[in-house]
Design brief:
CATH class of the largest domain in chain A: Alpha Beta
Oligomer: heterodimer
Number of domains of chain A: 2
Number of helices of chain A: 18
Strand content of chain A: 25-35%
Largest interface: A-B, 39 and 33 residues
CATH class of chain B: Mainly Alpha
CATH architecture of chain B: Orthogonal Bundle
Number of strands of chain B: 2
CATH topology of the largest domain in chain A: Rossmann fold
Strand order of the largest sheet of chain B: 1-2
Distance between the termini of chain A: 54 Å
Largest sheet of chain B: 2 strands, antiparallel
Number of helices of chain B: 14
Number of domains of chain B: 1
Strand order of the largest sheet of chain A: 6-9-10-3-11-12
Largest sheet of chain A: 6 strands, mixed
Helix content of chain B: over 70%
Order of helices and strands of chain B: HHHHHHEEHHHHHHHH
Strand content of chain B: under 5%
Chain lengths: 496, 334
């Protein structure tokens, strides 16, 4: 196999911060090459250098043996490189053909040659074996998976021989992921070189021929996928063993009285939920997507309240029908959608940190701000000051601001939904220790996470949801197999 | 790997019945027809005729100036922008045209060209303030509108300039009940329709309005697209100014603001089914919107309805239309 693209000694820094340091990468025609690394490892930047979005400070991009310097994305496109961004880059109201040719519409006698656009789009769709998509249909009428296909066709329409995909499955449902795999394999068979950026271990092992790992902007390792195990990969990415990641669990004498108590609670999404969280305890809530984990969180927090059963805080039954009511009763909720629901992105660190206190407390207490410094320090927010807009912070620091906003009202019960999603390993560890520290101070914590190792590493007890109801409870340190067994509805021997 | 047929199956691609779907454009023309019928009946009950020679002339005349402004407004709104300076620009260009002509036949062509050039410059300024200074379109064009107002208020107290008799033919000649100027307006609308739906820059107008970041990443020159749209919009307003000068016989500083062309044109565009956020809609719908507004006004005049009640009805029509389109959009997305 010939190498289609060779990156050698790529170095790139922004404002004096080196993001890529002397990175090499070789991409061959007909190969799926996975690029892995923690957030902030430099994967996206490398992709953008390849796509001509950023210009490297040093190093060469060589295509078929010819060195290129890209002045912009259009240059890279001409050289046969196409990138599929994490977000969709399609116009929903325009047709498939119009989207595929966007910015490069063929013109014949002064007018856009619409027939040719449709014909070429149909040819590409046929070539991929995707003739179920109508080139004249509006993109808004397509499913997410079909949009992904259109996205790929749009990239291929530039005669791309190198396709860089940045987390292409992030927006897809499970069954759609399989279809994407299929498509990627077909592209490989047709001799396209694919650079595949992903966080998902399973995906990378299923799909790639070769894996390159970056860490802190530097090349760590590159090897055929067959020669690597997932443990190797984690070690390369993290640079340390996983077991050191989690803080110690609560000792039995650290557990206090029950703070959150649900008895036979239910609503349209969940039923028969009986669950107790003690002061000082972190209870993990496991389950598959849609099994009702987040629904419990949202019910306790009054977003979609329970309609049956009882909910007691510190032993007193409460009727919680709104988030405001939940906050008044000492419940805090870190949602899974940090940017959409957790933060006012264009407001300052200060305003975000004081948001709940200002809105939910009454009178003078709502205006207290002199402990802000201490509050932010307690969660270790790194910012350019309390007046910086939170949208400029890293994911990890944003999450710390979310935590600070809840700590500002001294919650009794803290619910965290995917608390470390999209933040890098260092910040993850900080969040883990922070949660444990809060538990030690007497907060009852209910934690939801799709990352099983994290959930198992953090929890003192794990409640597994299946199909809208708790399927069982596992002690600290349960195996992933035990959790998955309950989550998928199988009986497992070691259930205690 | 075994051959798999159609791995990603389209939810059966909407069959050809889409041709008959109730798009906002279809709705607006259906509404126009209904309005004409209801109007005729109401006026008929009062013993009058809505669509006689005078009535048709009235509708077309009302539609001409607003139509020209609204065509331009459609283009900028489709790019996701907006132009609030058109009303003052109409006044300014009417003055430029009339003062340059100064009653001489030989100055007609220079007068028209100069007025259009002034309009183009104002459009360019609007576009540059938005793209280079990155000012929000609302504020940018409001600012330019204030500047124009300041200029007009300082230099004019009333009508000025003189349009030669020959040029007044533009404003008053007609073929049967249809004014020539209205046909010219429709011709300009047709040209804009071609530009938006057939030319490459037109495609880019929709792309920029649909999602400017997507357009940029796809290699569309977004800045140039926005500039073009604003220049075209202002030139269209310039045509309206020239037309009004021809009708009035002179330039009038407040002819545009008295007719509230800024808000009326936006109303016509939105009534015609174009998304205020941009990226969807077109000139055909806008012309429908313009004629609905013109017909409403003519009908109310024929019925001698209280002008305040007239505005209430216009407001209700506008809100109903937008609510209707919003509902249809929700239904169409998966």
């Amino acid at each position: 196999m010939t190498s289609a693209v060779r990156l050698a000694g790529i170095t790139k820094s922004f404002l004096g911060v080196t993001v890529l340091r002397d990175v090499d990468l070789e991409l061959r025609a007909g190969e799926v090459h996975a690029l892995m690394g923690e957030n902030g490892a430099g994967k996206s930047t490398l992709l953008k250098v390849l796509a001509g979005v950023h210009r490297q400070d040093a190093g060469t991009v060589e295509i078929d043996g010819v060195a290129h310097t890209f002045a912009g994305p259009a240059d890279a496109q001409r050289a046969g490189i196409a990138i599929i961004h994490q977000e969709f880059t399609l116009l929903p109201h325009r047709s498939v053909a119009e989207n595929v040719h966007l910015g490069r519409e063929p013109v014949r006698r002064l007018r856009v040659d619409r027939r040719r656009m449709v014909r070429e789009t149909r040819e590409l769709l046929d070539w991929l074996g995707e003739d179920g998509i109508d080139p004249t249909a509006a993109v808004s009428t397509l499913s997410v998976a079909q949009r992904q296909v259109v996205e790929i066709v749009k990239a291929l329409a530039t005669d791309a021989r190198v396709l860089a995909m940045d987390e292409p499955t992030a927006a897809l449902a499970d069954h759609e992921v399989e279809l994407l795999y299929d498509l990627v394999r077909r592209l490989r068979e047709r001799g396209i070189a694919i650079l595949y950026v992903s966080h998902r271990m399973r995906e990378v092992f299923d799909l790639s021929d070769r894996i390159t790992v970056l860490k802190d902007g530097a090349f760590v390792a590159s090897a055929p996928t067959a020669d690597l195990t997932s443990e190797d990969l984690v070690r390369h990415m993290v640079g340390r063993e996983l077991s050191t990641l989690y803080p110690d669990r609560a000792a039995p004498d650290e557990l206090g009285a029950v703070r959150l108590d649900l008895t036979d609670a239910g609503n349209a999404r969940v039923r028969d939920v009986t669950l107790a969280v003690r002061a000082g305890e972190i209870v993990g809530l496991a389950g598959l997507q849609g099994a009702g984990r987040s629904a419990i969180a949202r019910a306790v927090f009054g977003v979609q309240p329970f309609t049956r059963g009882t909910l007691a805080i510190d032993g007193v039954p409460r009727r919680i029908t709104s988030p405001r009511g939940a906050v008044r009763h000492g419940i805090a909720f870190v949602t899974e959608d940090r940017k959409g629901e957790g933060l006012a992105l264009r407001q300052s660190v200060r305003d975000n940190a004081l948001l709940v206190r200002r809105s939910a407390l009454r009178g003078r207490r709502s205006r207290v701000a002199d402990d802000l410094r201490a509050l932010l320090d307690s969660v270790n927010v790194v910012s350019r000051g309390e007046h910086q807009e939170v949208r400029f912070l890293s994911g990890g620091n944003q999450q710390k601001v979310v935590l600070a906003k809840w700590l500002a009202v001294d919650p009794k019960v803290l619910i965290v939904d995917e608390p470390t999603r999209g933040i890098d390993v260092g910040a993850k560890q900080a969040v883990h220790h922070l949660l444990r520290e809060l538990a030690r101070r007497g907060v009852a914590i209910l934690m939801i996470s799709s990352e099983l190792p994290e959930l198992i590493g953090m929890s003192d007890r794990i409640v597994v949801m299946h199909d809208g109801t708790p399927a069982g409870e596992l002690p600290a340190g349960a195996s992933e197999a035990a959790v998955m067994g309950l989550a998928t509805g199988h009986e497992v021997g070691e259930v205690a | 790997m075994q051959e798999k047929p159609l791995p990603v199956r389209a939810t059966p691609p909407e069959p050809r019945t889409r041709r008959f779907a109730l798009t906002p454009t279809v709705i607006v023309y259906l509404a126009l027809v209904v309005l004409l019928i209801v109007g005729s009946v109401l006026v008929g009950l009062r013993g009058g005729v809505l669509l006689d020679q005078a009535g048709l002339l009235n509708i077309f005349t009302r539609a001409t100036a607003l139509g020209l402004v609204a065509i331009g407004q459609t283009i900028v709104i489709l790019t996701g922008s907006l132009d609030l300076s058109v009303a003052y620009l109409v006044g300014l260009t009417s003055l430029v045209a009339a003062e340059t002509m100064a009653g001489q036949d030989g100055m007609i062509v220079p007068g028209v060209l100069l007025a259009l050039a002034v309009a183009a410059v104002v459009g360019l300024v609007n576009g540059l303030v938005i793209t280079v200074l990155k000012a929000n379109a609302f504020i940018a064009t409001l600012g330019v509108a204030l500047i124009l107002r300041g200029y007009l208020e300082h230099n004019y107290t009333g009508p000025a300039g003189d349009v030669p008799r020959t040029f007044q033919h533009l404003g008053y000649d007609r073929i049967g009940p249809i004014p020539v100027a209205a046909l010219l307006m429709l011709a300009i609308a047709a040209a804009c329709w071609w530009f938006l739906t057939r030319s490459r820059p037109g495609y880019h107008v929709y792309a920029v309005g649909g999602d400017i970041e997507v357009a940029r990443l796809s290699g569309v020159r977004t800045r140039r697209t926005i500039l073009t749209a604003h220049v075209l919009c202002s030139v269209a307003a310039g045509f309206a100014g020239i037309y009004l000068a021809s009708r009035l016989g002179s330039g009038a500083p407040y002819v545009g603001t008295d007719a509230v062309f800024d808000l009326e044109s936006i109303a016509a565009v939105v009534l015609g089914g174009t998304l205020l956020a941009g990226g969807r809609g077109g000139v055909v719908g806008t012309i429908g919107g313009v004629f609905i507004l013109a017909t409403l006004d003519t009908t109310f005049d024929a019925l001698a309805v209280d002008p305040f009640f007239k505005d209430v009805v216009r407001g209700v029509v506008l809100i109903t239309a937008v609510a209707l389109y919003a509902r249809r959009m929700v239904g169409r997305s998966p």
